[in-house]
From TrEMBL:
Pfam families attached to this UniProt entry: FAM92
GO annotation, biological process: cilium assembly
Cellular component terms (Gene Ontology): ciliary basal body; ciliary transition zone
Name of the protein this chain belongs to: Protein FAM92A-like
Residue spans crossing the bilayer: none
Cross-referenced InterPro entries: CBAR/FAM92 (IPR009602)
Span of the signal peptide: none
Top-level lineage group: Eukaryota
Length: 97
């Protein structure tokens, strides 16, 4: 009975050690990939901001109807980028918690 109990404990210890090894193996790589993703997304966000600004500049030179349509498009595109930025922040926060 005592031997069986020790074998069970040893098996549980090995299982826990395997789980820790698995986390150590994969978690660092995941965080590095998340960090690269965040950097690329930030650059994309910067380009999107430039695009929104340019659309607004162009809109200011157009007729009232086209101007309104372009401004609406720029506003919606900016909102989409805000949403994507929030997704990145959530991903970052989960990686470092």
């Amino acid at each position: 009975m005592l031997r069986r109990s020790m074998e069970n404990r040893d098996a549980q210890t090995r299982q826990l050690q395997d789980a820790v090894t698995n986390v150590e193996k994969h978690f660092g790589e995941l965080c590095q990939i998340f960090a690269a993703y965040v950097r690329k997304t930030a650059r994309l966000r910067d380009k999107a901001d430039l695009l929104v600004n340019e659309i607004n500049v162009y809109a200011s030179t157009e007729t009232p109807n086209l101007k309104q349509g372009l401004k609406n498009f720029a506003d919606e595109f900016a909102k989409l980028q805000d949403y994507r930025q929030a997704e990145v922040w959530r991903s970052q926060r989960h990686c470092y918690e």
